[in-house]
């Protein structure tokens, strides 16, 4: 039984803790005070009360950014100076010596984020980053085999056929789909997540994500240093997750060492058929790289996280946009049928056929523009720099607010309208004023997303196959008929989206 005499003391300590955290958050350093501020309390309130990203942008971020495309915001335990004008975005993304990835170890050590993400090369700089990226590069620079994605698309189609025109919750299904695709392509592993909705791999990952997304943690990740029950749960789940990852790595590593011992080399001409993990392990074994197992695990986690939520949420947004815009869905169907034929059976596009799916490519690009999965990416200033009328000292955090750039009416007329013609062959400056760095869903410069091509291939295969097989629409009472509901600001998705799929053949 809790001794109630200590209750007032506990409440007092908690209040003092929250007040000091609040005071800390509300007091920017002197040199940032002149920069327009995003209201911390309003941001927190919108975040906690599940307002949509559109509302957050319109009511909280945009007013602060309006004047010059520069504002400061308190997020992830730090003040971030954010930029939403393309030329400022370019400066931050291109000058990687001045605007460096922040050291997750220094800023986040002791938090669940740090334990889960680890120190992958996503957070590295300079020579260390170059070295790690070199090891992974061969695995990414190749043409992607569409057949493995096709196998997963067929599983998805089979699952949707069984829905019997009942509304399907899409976001979870797309997560399971992207996990299966990543499993086959990156790890040569069948997670089987589409076929089994209670799949333990998927559940484990989502349990960890649910803990990481506890709203108050996004503002004060340092709370993880206290023994709250969620922290203990997180540590346990992460240990289980690590076990799965290490098992996969060790199995492949043993196979690679055996091949090396026997002098067998893989047929690298057929690299497109090999999985990412095998290629990375081959590079490690044959270059005698000094990467530790932990480093290997951390880089793999980067692919696991980076290659899974991002593509799946993108797919969910596309399904939503095409359900709301039936005429665009019809144009996509027309193109897929022209390119893949009208036989009433599932056809997996070849890499050659993908090149002809131009309208579907435009849909994917416009979706990335209107619904970027990552709203903002951040950097740490490494040396004094002047940008957008501010002088930033080393240690200050800088953010590229992709959502803001891509919703700026100066570059995109009617930014809330979904219009794939913006990315058509005859650019119409009225629809899209193509200023460099005004389309940055995958970041830009040397740190641009490594998985961009892979993700584009995945999305093209899924959309072209789905659109030939199904017509889809929103249920009559769907909130998405009137607007959008979005979850999570950092890796955004259409919350509680349900769609009805009607088979064509
Ligand atoms: C729609 C899908 C995706 C989106 C929107 C996306 C977005 C991004 C963004 C914005 C960055 C840059 C972050 C920064 O500048 O701080 C990034 C980096 C990265 N992404 Fe993706 N990504 C996607 C899919 C993938 C996939 C499928 C993979 C791998 C399987 C992947 C692997 C990576 C890696 C390794 C980096 C770090 C590159 C470096 O720092 O050198 N991404 N991604």
TrEMBL record:
The keyword Transmembrane applies. Its cofactor is heme. Pfam families: p450 (PF00067). Heme binds at residue 449. The keyword Iron applies. It comes from the Eukaryota. This is Cytochrome P450. One of its GO terms (molecular function) is oxidoreductase activity, acting on paired donors, with incorporation or reduction of molecular oxygen. The lineage of its organism: Eukaryota, Fungi, Fungi incertae sedis, Zoopagomycota, Kickxellomycotina. Keywords: Heme, Iron, Membrane, Metal-binding, Monooxygenase, Oxidoreductase, Transmembrane, Transmembrane helix. Belongs to the cytochrome P450 family. The chain crosses the membrane at residues 6-26.
């Amino acid at each position: 039984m809790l001794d109630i005499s200590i209750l007032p003391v506990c409440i007092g300590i908690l209040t003092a803790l929250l007040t000091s955290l609040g005071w800390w958050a509300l007091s920017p350093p002197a040199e940032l005070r002149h920069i327009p501020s995003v209201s911390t309390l309003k941001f927190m309130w919108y975040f906690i009360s599940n307002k949509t990203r559109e509302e957050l942008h319109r009511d909280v971020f945009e007013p602060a950014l309006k004047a010059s495309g520069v504002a400061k915001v308190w997020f992830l335990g730090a003040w971030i100076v954010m930029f939403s004008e393309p030329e400022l975005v370019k400066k931050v993304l291109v000058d990687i010596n001045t605007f460096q990835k922040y050291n997750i170890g220094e800023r986040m050590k002791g938090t669940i984020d740090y334990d889960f993400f680890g120190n992958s090369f996503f957070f590295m700089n300079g020579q260390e980053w170059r070295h790690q990226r070199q090891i992974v590069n061969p695995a990414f620079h190749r043409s992607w085999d569409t057949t493995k994605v096709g196998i997963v698309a067929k599983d998805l189609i089979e699952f949707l056929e069984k829905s019997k025109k009942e509304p399907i919750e899409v976001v979870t299904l797309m997560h399971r789909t992207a996990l299966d695709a990543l499993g086959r392509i990156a790890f040569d592993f069948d997670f089987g997540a589409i076929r089994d909705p209670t799949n333990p791999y998927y559940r484990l990952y989502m349990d960890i994500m649910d803990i990481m997304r506890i709203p108050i943690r996004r503002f004060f990740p340092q709370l993880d240093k206290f023994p709250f029950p969620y922290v203990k749960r997180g540590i346990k789940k992460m240990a289980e997750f690590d076990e799965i990852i290490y098992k996969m790595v060790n199995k492949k590593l043993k196979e690679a060492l055996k091949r090396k011992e026997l002098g067998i080399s893989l047929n690298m001409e057929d690299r497109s058929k090999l999985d990412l993990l095998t290629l990375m392990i081959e590079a490690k074994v044959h270059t005698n790289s000094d990467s530790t197992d932990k480093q290997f695990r951390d880089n793999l986690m980067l692919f696991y996280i980076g290659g899974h939520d991002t593509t799946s949420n993108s797919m969910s947004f596309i399904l939503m946009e095409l359900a709301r815009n039936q005429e665009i869905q019809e144009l996509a169907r027309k193109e897929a049928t022209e390119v893949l034929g009208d036989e009433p059976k599932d056809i997996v596009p070849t890499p050659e056929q993908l090149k002809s799916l131009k309208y579907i490519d435009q849909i994917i690009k416009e979706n990335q523009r209107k619904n970027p999965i990552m709203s903002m990416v951040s950097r740490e200033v490494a040396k004094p720099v002047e940008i957008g009328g501010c002088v930033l000292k080393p240690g200050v955090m800088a953010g590229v607010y992709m959502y803001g750039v891509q919703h700026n009416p100066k570059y995109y007329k009617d930014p809330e309208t979904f219009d794939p013609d913006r990315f058509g062959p005859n650019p119409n400056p009225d629809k899209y004023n193509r200023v460099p760095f005004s389309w940055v869903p995958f970041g830009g410069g040397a740190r641009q997303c490594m998985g961009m091509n892979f993700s584009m291939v995945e999305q093209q295969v899924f959309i072209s196959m789905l659109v030939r097989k199904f017509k889809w629409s929103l249920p009559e009472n769907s909130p998405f008929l009137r607007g959008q509901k979005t979850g999570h600001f950092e890796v955004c998705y259409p919350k509680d989206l349900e769609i009805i799929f009607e088979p064509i053949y």
